[in-house]
Amino acid sequence: MPDGPAELTDAPADMSPTPTEPREAPAHGHALSRRWALRLGAAGTAAVAVGVGRNILVPSLQQRGLLSSNGVLDAASIALADQLYTEVFPTSPLILNPFTDPMPVLQAARPLSPAQVAA
């Protein structure tokens, strides 16, 4: 059973590479390492994701009237508010057909006299 990371490698313990030693050129002749290939793949994937996300997001924002410089922030705040608060009752249950129902005009109340206020 190996005791530590030194016993897991095939190289002898006294031949471990140090950071000051130069790296050897790859034997296969390619200059692109695996690390750089993964970085390029991740960057390409991110670019494709941004493009697809934009194609999905822009028509939705345009339909809701939020296609502006702050539209994404406004849409995010609306989505957050929708998750936190649900309106169970309408704002005014008495106005069923706004803009078509007749609006009652109320009369102003008469002012009170000083004797009525003192009482």
Features:
119 residues; mainly alpha; 3 helices; 0% strand; elongated
Structural features, described:
This protein has helices at 34-63, 71-84, 114-118. With 119 residues, the protein is an all-alpha fold. The termini are far apart. The relative contact order is 0.04.
Q: Encode the helix/strand succession as letters.
A: HHH
Binned strand content:
under 5%
Q: How many beta-strand elements?
A: 0
Mean pLDDT: 77
What does the largest sheet look like?
A: none
Fraction in helix: 40-55%
Which oligomerization state do the chains in this entry correspond to?
A: single chain
Q: What general outline do the C-alpha atoms trace?
A: elongated
Q: What is the helix tally?
A: 3
Structural class: mainly alpha
Radius of gyration, in angstroms, nearest whole number:
36 Å
Distance between the termini: 98 Å
> Low-confidence runs (pLDDT<50, min 5 residues)?
none
List the helices and strands and how they pair.
Layout: H1 34-63, H2 71-84, H3 114-118
Question: How would you summarize what this structure contains?
Answer:
The protein has helices spanning 34-63, 71-84, 114-118. With 119 residues, it is mainly α.
